[in-house]
Amino acid sequence: MSTTTKVAIIMGSKSDLSVMQDAADVLAELGVDYEITVVSAHRTPDRMFSYARAAADRGIKVIIAGAGGAAHLPGMVASLTHLPVIGVPVKSSNSIDGWDSILSILQMPNGIPVATVALNAAKNAGILAAQILSTADEYLVKNLMDFKENLKKKVEESAKEMEDGD
Ligand code: C2R
């Protein structure tokens, strides 16, 4: 990890990477350094404890945690750190229909929030992490505003194409 790395992307299994890569890609697009790895509350509880406990001291400001099925990783990590945790429900091979993961991450008890994005919405998790960091980073504010301006332009282009019958 470089000294400028502020976002940690973790996931319960390597099999989540095809979803979680979207968070990494949008952070790179926005100019945010990140680290990415596998941490499982179920399979590697000791690793999860040490990773979550050390994250803030290593300079991490936001943790993005994705997991599928009985997704305890985001909530357990949130219970071990004061850092904001963004949870990504993953529709994994062991998921019934995605709801198991959504509800495991979303329905946290009072006191231990996890900011839960939509199913497989790792891109939104990356954008939200950048928005959190931008409250103390003017350079990021500009990148985010450019990003949103691009979204607006794409919609306006689509609208024009549709209206013109292209
Ligand atoms: P495998 O493909 O490795 O069997 O994993 C992973 O996030 C993945 O979506 C299947 C699914 O199990 C999930 N998993 C969790 C946790 N650890 C692994 N939900 C956890 O600690 O919450």
UniProtKB/TrEMBL annotation:
Boundaries of every PurE domain copy: 5-155
Residues that, per the record, bind substrate: 13, 16, 43
Family matches, as InterPro entries: PurE_ClassI, PurE_dom, PurE_prokaryotes
Entry's Gene Ontology BP terms: 'de novo' IMP biosynthetic process
Annotated coiled-coil segments of the chain: none
Organism domain of life: Bacteria
Matching SMART domains: AIRC (SM01001)
Keywords: Isomerase, Lyase, Purine biosynthesis
UniProt function note: Catalyzes the conversion of N5-carboxyaminoimidazole ribonucleotide (N5-CAIR) to 4-carboxy-5-aminoimidazole ribonucleotide (CAIR).
Family designation: Belongs to the AIR carboxylase family. Class I subfamily.
Entry protein name: N5-carboxyaminoimidazole ribonucleotide mutase
Gene from which the chain derives: purE
